[in-house]
Amino acid sequence: MANKYFTKTILYNLLAAVVIVIMLLVAVQSGLKTYTRHGESITVPDLRGMSFEQVKSILSDNTLDWKIMDSVYDMSKPPMSIVDQNPKPKSNVKQGRTIYITINATTAPTTEIPDLIGRSSLKYAAMQLQSYGLKLGEPIYKPDPHLNAVIGMMINGQNVTKKMRVPKGTVVTLLLGDGLGNSRMSVPYLIGLKYEEAEFKLRGYSLNIGALVVDEGVSDTAGAVVYKQVPDYGEGHSIRIGEPIDLFLGREVPAGIIVDPSLYDKLDSIPTQ
């Protein structure tokens, strides 16, 4: 009898232990499901472009939390609007997930204007302004012998000063050299010179060759003779450094046109205007 009683007791205890273990497993599993909200997910809404107040309301209605991760400044977007978010729109997340947002600042951060005057070309200046968060306006060309050299900078019609700070996104107007300069000289006399001689002479005066009008029958342009020039030589006729002179070329100077070699080396400088 004692052995039977002892055996039944062990069996009852074992059975009770198994039941308790099963109940604990069920409770733990149920608790985990409740804690992790198993099977429950929310599609993250697209918050970009919305106002900050709208976003707070939408995330609250969807049992999602929010946190400002960063701020940027984009003058094309409204202040305090959402620029970016993480997780991305249409991602599936659990309730209570934190959505990290990037907002558009109310005021633009400032930046120092780079010192470009006298040391930069248009291409380099444009890259520098962009790297500083500034915008390049329509350049203004001024008389200067160096083409596209930065000789000044302006903002809203005012000259830029060294170490000046402005909001990012500000439009900067560059004053560039036109490659011509402001110095003037009397028009050189070229009639009767061969083309190659006239070309050499013009280069020496920092002038350029403009249009070439070559008569029919001329096969050797280099050896052709200048019989007309525009602008023409004459007292009071001046030209700016870097400007062109058009040349008319023929095999010889036509009859009726007098060539005066004494004028080849006569060149008067004109005061800068």
Characterise this structure:
24% of the residues lie in helices and 29% in strands. With 273 residues, it is α/β, with parallel strands linked by helices. It has 4 domains: 1-39; 42-104, Trypsin Inhibitor V, Chain A (2-Layer Sandwich); 110-177, Trypsin Inhibitor V, Chain A; 184-270, Trypsin Inhibitor V, Chain A, CATH 3.30.10. The strands form 6 sheets. Strands 7, 8, 9, 10 and 12 form a 5-stranded mixed beta sheet that branches. The chain has a 3-stranded mixed beta sheet with strand order 2-5-3, with helices on one face. The chain has a 3-stranded antiparallel beta sheet with strand order 16-13-18, with no helix packed on it. β9 and β10 (158-159) form a beta hairpin. The chain starts with a helix and ends with a strand. The model is unreliable at 269-273 (pLDDT under 50).
Assigned CATH class of the largest domain: Alpha Beta
CATH topology of the largest domain: Trypsin Inhibitor V, Chain A
Q: Estimate the global geometry from the Cα principal axes.
A: rod-shaped
Alpha-beta classification: alpha/beta
Domains (count): 4
Radius of gyration: 42 Å
- The helix fraction, in percent, is 10-25%
- Can you tell me the CATH architecture of the largest domain? 2-Layer Sandwich
Q: Please count the helical segments.
A: 4
Low-confidence stretches: 269-273
Biggest sheet details: 5 strands, mixed
Ends: how far apart?
134 Å
